[in-house]
Amino acid sequence: MAQSKSAIPQVVFVLGPPGSGKGTQCAKLVEEFKFTHLSAGELLRGEITKGSKDGALIQKLMDEGKIVPVDITCRLLYNSMQESSSNRFLIDGFPRNKDNVDGWERIVGDKADVKFCLFLDCPKEVCLSRIMSRHEGRTDDTPEKFKLRIDTYFKETVPIIEHFGTINKLRSIPSDRTIEHVYADVKTAIGSEFEIGKFEP
Predict the structure, then answer these.
(1) Which NCBIfam families match (predicted)?
(2) What percent of the chain has pLDDT over 70?
(3) CB contact at 8 A, 151 and 124
(4) In terms of C-beta density within 10 A (0-12 exposed, 13-18 middle, 19 or more buried), how is residue 36 classed?
């Protein structure tokens, strides 16, 4: 039984508001421990670039300001895991709401082993400061727009964080510190479910 369990994709969901450092921490884990990093947003944009049937629908929905059906997102994530030679995945920015969680259970379910949700907890003010410093000189980005994005994130995602907490699958790490301090705690969280030092190259 343990052998078949380890053969299916092992997943860590990585959540956190814009500016919390998700991309930075995921990149460090990929480099050191050979995780495969999947971003739901990048996969959706990739389908548009490829010009696939799903891509045309995704583009149409985005142009109309509508949400892409969760079934498409979950299918893209699962297909990417199936196509990878790795079986350890960081899924960045997903699930963001209850519809995402329900869709994952429906489409993927026990075909993947979700170890836990890694939540990079960062105060809104710190997130806003980081985002604005990264986007200096861009006239289309304003503090008001970023604040709205962050507020929307917290409104949608806090219930999901609480959901993972109730099923004992939440690892919350304060990310308003240096990259190195945050990463030390991230490594500890990863080590609680994966054997550090025994990662496949």
Answers:
(1) UMP_CMP_kin_fam (TIGR01359)
(2) 90
(3) yes
(4) middle
Report, as an integer, the average pLDDT of 37-45.
92
pTM for the full model?
0.86
- pLDDT given for residue 119 in this prediction: 97
Residue 18 burial (CB count, 10 A): 18
Confidence of residue 185 (pLDDT cuts 50, 70, 90): very high
Q: How many helices (H) and strands (E) does the chain have?
A: 9, 5
* Domain 2-191 classification at class level: alpha beta
**Strand pairing report for 36-39 and 170-174:** unpaired
CA 36/CA 130 separation, integer angstroms: 26
Count of alpha carbons within 13 angstroms of residue 33, beta-carbon side: 23
Q: What's the confidence (pLDDT) of residue 141? A: 62
Give DSSP secondary structure letters for 71-128.
Answer: HHHHHHHHHHHHH-S--EEEEET---SHHHHHHHHHHTGGGSEEEEEEEEE--HHHHH
Distance, CA of 141 to chain centre: 23
Q: Write down the pLDDT at residue 201.
A: 43
Report the C-alpha gap between 181 and 167 in whole angstroms. Answer: 27
